[in-house]
Amino acid sequence: CETCSKEEAKYRCPRCMKYSCSLLCVKKHKLALSCNGVRDKTAFISVNEFTDLNLLSDYRFLEDVGRTADAAARHPTMHSPTTKKLLYCLRNRARKCNIDLRTLPVGFTKRRENTTTFNCMEKKFYWHLKLLFPHCHAEYTLKGVPDDKTLADILKPYIDPVESDPVFCQRLRIYTMSPQSDVQILMKIENRKQNSIRYNELDASRSLLDNLKGKIIIEYPTLFVVLKTLKKDMVILGQDGNEPADNSDSESSSLSSVEEGEIRDS
């Protein structure tokens, strides 16, 4: 058992492949590693390790994708002229701001929950925004965030030592106690291969709109707030010594990991 190191292992987690001896140790390992115990159907598998079971799993996954896409295509709102016009206008406005905004089919979780709008009078986006604090396993959703608001102001109620909300401050204590210079704001680069995940580092002093320019956004932005001293396995593009600091090569992949996750959710 990789949890208690005492008893003989009886179970193996489908998600992280950790061995456990009992239900108690299974629960402990899930809590310690934030593991949900569900096998990742899109995890990268090398050719040497690929078996007939993996092939069967991929086949079933593609069948699920086909059923989900077919159900979305049959959804009544999918053919609504008003819905199509609003989405077209939203993508067109984003394109004028040098933002590649992509929307998912009706029925996907991110499509249903997205509340991003564009105010024609103010000529301003009001974004649906998700903030992830991985070191505290915390996630917050913001609605109607103006595009001219700086990232520092957006994060102020969460991690500012003085102005943060007491409830958020308590849960995000590791962030509020760390120096602000140690905080990094990252956004995952979409449309990359599953085994080649990279992140762009954003500038907290600049507006949300400035940070989103030149990037691919699937429905709405998701920002990862991390600490430099604690972040692991989050490679920032341009800082790994092998790739340039732009996302021009990110167009080559088929489905992004976000889309794959949404398909599983649906």
Automatic annotation (TrEMBL):
Function: Required for box C/D snoRNAs accumulation involved in snoRNA processing, snoRNA transport to the nucleolus and ribosome biogenesis.
Domain HIT-type: 1-35
Lineage: Eukaryota, Metazoa, Chordata, Craniata, Vertebrata
Protein family according to the UniProt entry: Belongs to the BCD1 family.
Quaternary data: Interacts with FBL, SNU13, NOP58, NUFIP1, RUVBL1, RUVBL2 and TAF9. Interacts (via HIT-type zinc finger) with the RUVBL1/RUVBL2 complex in the presence of ADP.
Superkingdom of origin: Eukaryota
Protein name: Box C/D snoRNA protein 1
Region annotation (Disordered) ranges: 240-266
Keyword Cytoplasm appears in the UniProt entry: no
Organism: Heliornis fulica (sungrebe)
